[in-house]
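Re: that backbone. Tokens:
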């Protein structure tokens, strides 16, 4: 099953990452009084959003074949990219009516990022995905 997922990267990895990332941006751009109501605590929403984002990004960086340095250091780059985006996302919310940047939101994002990267790394290790995709041997 995981071999199929890693071989069909565009459908199962790249598209979900892109859709999720766009969804985060759209939701954080909605003015505070227009936000849809969800039955989850605000910090839990942040945690889940960034857990999923970092999980998808970590897997993406590991299975992509174009940039070997990103592939070899996928954990480090996934952390750097998601933490920078999380920081800019919190700052961006200052400019949205009814929204604000909060340190506790950023901490919830950070915890989600850490757990998402860890989960992705464990999934990659357990699936043998480190060896599933070899440069030049797979077509999209």
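Recovered sequence:
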């Amino acid at each position: 099953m995981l071999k199929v997922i890693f071989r069909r990267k565009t459908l199962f990895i790249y598209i979900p990452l892109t859709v999720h990332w766009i969804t985060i941006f759209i939701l954080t751009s909605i003015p505070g009084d227009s936000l849809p109501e969800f039955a989850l605590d605000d910090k839990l929403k942040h945690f889940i959003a960034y857990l999923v984002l970092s999980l998808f990004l970590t897997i993406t960086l590991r299975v992509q074949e174009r940039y070997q340095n990103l592939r070899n250091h996928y954990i480090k780059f996934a952390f750097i990219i998601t933490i920078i985006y999380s920081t800019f996302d919190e700052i961006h919310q200052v400019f949205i009516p009814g929204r604000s940047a909060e340190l506790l939101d950023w901490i919830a994002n950070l915890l989600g990022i850490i757990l998402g990267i860890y989960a992705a790394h464990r999934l990659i290790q357990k699936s043998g995905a480190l060896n599933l995709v070899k440069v030049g041997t797979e077509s999209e």
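The chain is about 75% helix and 0% strand. The chain has one domain: 2-29+42-130.
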